[in-house]
TrEMBL record:
Protein name: Unannotated protein
UniProt keyword Signal, yes or no: yes
Signal keyword on record: yes
Pfam families in the cross-refs: Mtb12_C
Low molecular weight antigen MTB12-like C-terminal domain: residues covered: 76-183
InterPro entries recorded: Mtb12-like_C
Keyword annotations of the record: Signal
Length: 189
């Protein structure tokens, strides 16, 4: 009796579902035996719809972080300043005293800069910037190529520029990482 009651309930339920979709009682009576086939079809769209609703919220979160970067007063000007600072600082023709104002925490790294400029290997090194990506109003990721006597030695290297007192500078971390290749670590410990 319970089996018959389940079939009757299934038939009524299927009739209601089909009627709401434009089906007829005849169609539901014919398909009552395939109730198990119809049930997964009905559930699947509900399961599919839920992730679709959640996805835009997930993709919207990173978009909210972008306006911070766009609040930089003049991105093209900041980009040009970073390129100029990096290329001047890492130009082997730039004197040590000209490099000091281009480096974060230079007052603590004066001896390191002097050693780097005097290093026979580092005297052959220059850098050219290929890209600048602003991570915040005070920090930018700099992609650059290290040239040794004008030939590419390390391409696609990355470092950081920081905004200090309204001026973009080579970060201490980036400088110390690069001079370590020349065996200079004083002041960078």
């Amino acid at each position: 009796m319970k089996t018959r009651s389940f079939v009757s309930c299934s038939t009524v339920l299927l009739t209601l579902v089909l009627a709401s979709c434009g089906g007829s009682k005849t169609a539901s009576t014919t398909t009552a035996e395939s109730t198990t086939t119809v049930a997964p079809t009905t559930v699947a769209p509900e399961t599919t719809v839920a992730p679709t609703t959640v996805a835009p919220e997930t993709t919207a979160a990173p978009t909210t972080a972008a306006p911070t970067v766009s609040t930089i007063a003049d991105i093209p000007e900041a980009h040009a300043e970073i390129v100029a600072v990096w290329e001047k600082f890492f130009d082997n023709k730039t004197a040590a005293e000209e490099r000091i104002p281009l480096l974060e925490n230079a007052d603590k790294l004066t001896e390191t800069i002097t050693q780097a400029v005097a290093s026979p290997m580092l005297k052959q090194v220059t850098a050219t910037v290929s890209a600048v990506a602003f991570e915040s109003e005070t920090r930018a990721l700099v992609t650059f190529n290290v040239l040794l006597n004008g030939a590419a030695a390390m391409t696609g290297s990355q470092g950081v520029a920081v905004l200090v007192d309204g001026k973009w500078l080579v970060s201490q971390e980036s400088f110390c990482t690069l001079v370590a290749f020349g065996g200079i670590t004083i002041g960078c410990e």
